[in-house]
Amino acid sequence: VQLVQSGPELRNPGASVKVSCKVSGYPVIDYYIEWVRQGPGEGLQWMGRIDPEDEETIYAQNFRGRVTFTADTATGTVYVDLDSLRFEDTGVYYCVRTGLTYGMDYWGNGTLVTVSS
């Protein structure tokens, strides 16, 4: 099982960013994908979850209205879009495979998003 994320991104405040997470080694529809973020010197912050089979989503309240999760089952890729970026959105974004039995078991390699003017 592998979750491979897209490369680092640099954005200005107010812009948007889209990060991808391509899974392999299992059918993408068989597990949820959760997104978490870690800011500089901070702990992990949960952003939400998507069920790639039907694209049902749950968003953390802190991100609601600015974040969108999507899934392309043909390519096994899940995406997170974050709009209206702020300096405090700087951090490493991770996708995480989540199953009902074992919880979060496989992590992506992380994508650094830097918001700077």
Radius of gyration: 13 Å
Please identify the structural class as seen in this structure.
mainly beta
Mean pLDDT: 97
Q: What is the share of helical residues?
A: under 10%
Q: Which regions contain 5 or more consecutive residues with pLDDT less than 50?
A: none
Concise overview:
The protein is mostly beta strands and 117 residues long. It is built from no helices and 11 strands. 0% of the residues lie in helices and 56% in strands.
Give an overview in words.
With 117 residues, the chain is an all-beta fold. It has strands spanning 2-5, 9-11, 17-24, 32-38, 44-51, 56-59, 67-72, 77-82, 91-99, 103-107, 111-115. Strands 2, 4, 5, 6, 9, 10 and 11 form a seven-stranded mixed beta sheet that branches. A four-stranded antiparallel beta sheet has the order 1-3-8-7, with no helix packed on it. Strand 4 and strand 5 form a beta hairpin. It is globular. The protein starts with a strand and ends with a strand. The mean pLDDT is 97.
Please give the structural blueprint.
Elements: E1 2-5, E2 9-11, E3 17-24, E4 32-38, E5 44-51, E6 56-59, E7 67-72, E8 77-82, E9 91-99, E10 103-107, E11 111-115
